[in-house]
Design a protein that fits this description.
About 45% of the residues lie in helices and about 10% in strands. Helix 10 links the parallel strand 9 and strand 10. Helix 11 packs across helix 12.
Length: about 375
């Protein structure tokens, strides 16, 4: 028995087959924290969204009223796949305000043009009223800010073609009372290739008195120059790029860009393949050029969505603005200049128009001039 105990003791003491001792615990190391591989393209896009969250896009031209007129049913708050614009995509694109174009059918003039403008204004008001959680009607810079602070997208009616006035300053005042804030100075006998007539100049003065912006996109060079000389309020080009980069008739040559900038006006570059080119970089090239020639306080954005136009790659709908702003940040744009581009310059122009209107209303009563009196 003693020999058996000695054998057991020997076999369990030296790590043999019968060794029952507990080995010392192995050294434990904590797991390495997860470090995702960073994409260098993500950083500008993240910065772009941060800038847009503070300074959303004020889009100078949207064809939504015309597009909605062809639909029997739509819901912009849930999303509308048949359109370029709806509330979810506006929020994804950080759009804070839209100028809604009041489209007039081709070759419409006189009473028919006035009626068409009234119908479009009524449609705008109806659409905004039916989408209270996403849209809010606005008429000035302060109301744009109020809408943004309430989480709504501000809708400013206009531009409307000059034919909508029916050659009457009384009609202009009535349309303004209904919300119209931008008039395009083309398509009327008093604003043509030869420039403004005497009645055309009176129209501009009355627009100044009311606070209605003059839109010079598509206008002849003489009309542009005369409007800049007559108007005391800033003028805008709601859909004009740089003709030096793309020779489209609605794009502005450098000499007019210089004059527009010197007058405190605003050139809103459209996101259309026809006017700016097929890629995001092409659009950025136009923005670079307009900023250099006209100045950083005279360049803005115009989506021109839902107008039937083809759009550059990655900018096919209203959600694409962060990609465009990211491209500008890659090019070295300061965030302060981006803030002017997206929001600040439109605010400046609207405030300038309101200031001019208050001053003009102290100096002169509503004009009663007629086209027959001044241009006959």
């Amino acid at each position: 028995m003693a020999d058996l105990q000695d054998d057991l003791h020997t076999s369990t003491g030296a790590g043999g087959f019968g060794d029952l001792s507990v080995p010392p615990p192995a050294e434990v190391f904590p797991p390495e924290p997860y470090a995702p591989v960073s994409d260098p393209d993500d950083e500008p896009l993240t910065r772009a969204r941060a800038v847009l969250a503070a300074h959303p896009v004020a889009d100078g031209y949207c064809g939504l009223p015309r597009a909605l007129g062809s639909l029997s049913w739509y819901d912009l708050e849930l999303g509308e796949g048949s359109l370029d614009t709806d509330v979810p995509r506006l929020r994804e694109g950080h759009v804070g305000a839209l100028f809604w174009s009041l489209h007039l059918p081709e070759d419409t003039d006189g009473d028919r043009a006035v009626a068409a403008a009234l119908e479009q204004l009524d449609l705008v008001r109806t659409v905004v009223r039916d989408h209270p959680e996403g849209l809010r009607l606005a008429h000035d810079a302060g109301q744009l800010i109020d809408a943004r602070n309430c989480g709504r997208v501000a809708v400013l009616p206009g531009p409307a073609g000059a034919a909508a006035l029916g050659d009457s300053l009384a009609v202009l005042r009535s349309l303004h009372a209904l919300g119209l804030r931008v008039v395009t100075l083309t398509g009327a006998s008093w604003a043509g290739e030869e420039g403004l007539t005497r009645f055309g100049e009176e129209v501009v003065r009355e627009m100044n008195r009311l606070g209605v912006l003059a839109d010079l996109s598509g206008a002849g060079a003489r009309t542009v120059r005369r409007t800049l000389a007559v108007s005391r309020a800033p003028a805008v080009c709601t859909r004009s790029a740089a003709r030096a980069l793309r020779p489209h008739p609605a794009n502005l040559p450098d000499d007019l860009l210089v004059e527009l900038g010197a007058a405190g006006g605003l050139c809103m570059v459209p996101l259309t393949a026809e006017q700016t080119g097929p890629t995001v970089r092409d659009v950025a090239d136009h923005l670079d050029h307009v900023r250099t020639v006209a100045g950083p306080r005279s360049v803005g954005l115009s989506g021109t969505y839902d107008t039937g136009a083809a759009h550059p790659l990655e900018l096919g709908d209203a959600a694409g603005y962060p990609r465009l702003i990211a491209e500008l940040l890659r090019r070295g744009w300061e965030e302060s200049d981006v803030a002017l581009l997206t929001w600040g310059n439109v605010q400046r122009v609207l405030r300038g128009a309101a200031f001019t209107a208050r001053a003009a209303q102290l100096r002169r009563p509503p004009s009663t001039a007629t086209v027959a009196e001044l241009d006959d």
